[in-house]
């Protein structure tokens, strides 16, 4: 079954051959035995949803300095048993979707990383918050902005953090482009292009079921160009326009977008032109153009390495496993109050959801839709 995970893997496949240290066979050992994790207080994490991306995060945690995988939440008992053995997880830290509210009485767990279908995020994050645990939620954070705001409100009421899995906000070459833009090395940013696409496979998968996904390609990979435009330009959009193309209505049912082209306008006058599709391969590219220079990244959001160049030369920051950096940075946010260069909080997630809501409205009405994200 092809999915965003396969798309993102392939996006960095050629470059990945240059850095085969992304996964560490030490993951077969209980991670609490790794003394390098004891330098600072670790963030003790339970993963909810043990699919392909949950597995990737679990492997990445083995490379971290400040996080531990200590628990699992899954509806599949066989996966729970396999993870218990592989990662040395105690039985008392294993839960299913019906009983995981009991984590409120488990002092061994600090945070839960929710990696389940989009349509489940709202209720699951709110339950995590009510249990008094910090919530990390994979993007998109919900199926619409109203649900995302409800998640933010629940976590605030519970006094816990809500962080969204924006791994690109910690990626070295991405941060270098942001640094250059802030330093004025591109002059005044004028234009951003984001292309995100792959040919999706199995038509029965949850990503093509509106109740679980909330939409099609836009919810899955279009969010990368939306979020990328915001951090590359350094602004939030004030309007959107959008057009949908659907060539295969049998596969892409009502409410599941196949291809959407969308445009965004920003307060400075900069514009973005983006494409999100489930029907074309080889699309993972960002381009930023300014009055003095430009930056191009291709692949721009794959699991890495991220390749790119600017008018000044190649982007050559060293590659590290995205999810490992993300998890250690999130530990610093939670424990130290660290402020990341680009936010990863729930409010950041709600902004993206408001833009997605506006894009769907623009597709439906054919009109320019105004936005106010502040």
UniProtKB/TrEMBL annotation:
Annotated GFO/IDH/MocA-like oxidoreductase domain residues: 177-295
UniProt entry tagged with the keyword Oxidoreductase: yes
One Pfam family here: GFO_IDH_MocA
GO molecular function, one term: nucleotide binding
This protein's UniProt keywords: Oxidoreductase, Signal
Signal peptide: 1-28
Keyword Lipoprotein belongs to the record: no
Domain Gfo/Idh/MocA-like oxidoreductase N-terminal, first and last residues per copy: 43-166
Family: Belongs to the Gfo/Idh/MocA family.
Protein name per its UniProtKB record: Gfo/Idh/MocA family oxidoreductase
Record organism: Algoriphagus aquimarinus
Taxonomic classification: Bacteria, Pseudomonadati, Bacteroidota, Cytophagia, Cytophagales
């Amino acid at each position: 079954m092809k999915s965003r995970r396969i798309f993102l893997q392939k996006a960095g496949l050629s470059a990945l051959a240059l850095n085969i240290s992304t996964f560490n066979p030490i993951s077969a050992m209980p991670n609490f035995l790794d003394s390098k994790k004891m330098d600072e207080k670790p963030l003790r994490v339970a993963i909810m949803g043990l699919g392909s991306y949950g597995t990737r995060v679990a492997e990445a945690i083995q490379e971290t300095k400040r996080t531990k995988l200590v628990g699992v939440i899954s509806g599949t008992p066989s996966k729970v048993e396999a993870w218990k053995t592989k990662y040395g997880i105690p039985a008392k830290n294993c839960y299913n979707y019906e009983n995981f509210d009991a984590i409120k009485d488990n002092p061994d767990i600090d945070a839960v990383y929710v990696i389940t279908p989009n349509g489940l995020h709202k209720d699951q994050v709110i339950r995590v918050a009510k249990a008094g645990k910090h919530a990390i939620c994979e993007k998109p954070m919900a199926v619409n902005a109203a649900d995302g705001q409800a998640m933010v409100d629940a976590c605030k009421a519970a006094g816990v953090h809500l962080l969204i899995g924006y791994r690109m906000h910690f990626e070295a070459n991405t941060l270098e482009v942001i640094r250059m833009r802030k330093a004025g090395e591109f002059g005044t940013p004028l234009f951003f292009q984001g292309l995100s696409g792959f040919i999706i496979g199995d038509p029965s998968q949850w990503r093509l079921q509106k109740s679980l996904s909330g939409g099609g390609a836009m919810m899955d990979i279009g969010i990368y160009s939306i979020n990328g435009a915001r951090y590359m330009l350094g602004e939030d959009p004030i309007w959107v326009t959008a057009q949908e193309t659907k060539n295969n209505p049998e596969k892409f049912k009502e409410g599941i977008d196949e291809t959407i082209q969308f445009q965004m306008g920003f307060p400075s006058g900069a514009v973005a032109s983006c494409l999100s599709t489930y029907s074309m391969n080889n699309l993972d590219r960002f381009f930023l153009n300014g009055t003095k220079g430009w930056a191009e990244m291709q692949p721009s959001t794959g699991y890495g390495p991220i390749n790119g160049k600017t008018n000044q030369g190649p982007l050559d920051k060293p590659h590290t496993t995205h999810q490992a950096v993300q998890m250690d940075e999130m530990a610093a946010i939670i424990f130290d109050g660290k402020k990341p260069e680009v936010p990863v909080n729930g409010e950041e997630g709600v902004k993206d959801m408001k833009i997605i809501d506006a894009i769907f409205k623009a597709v439906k009405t054919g009109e320019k839709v105004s936005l106010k994200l502040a």
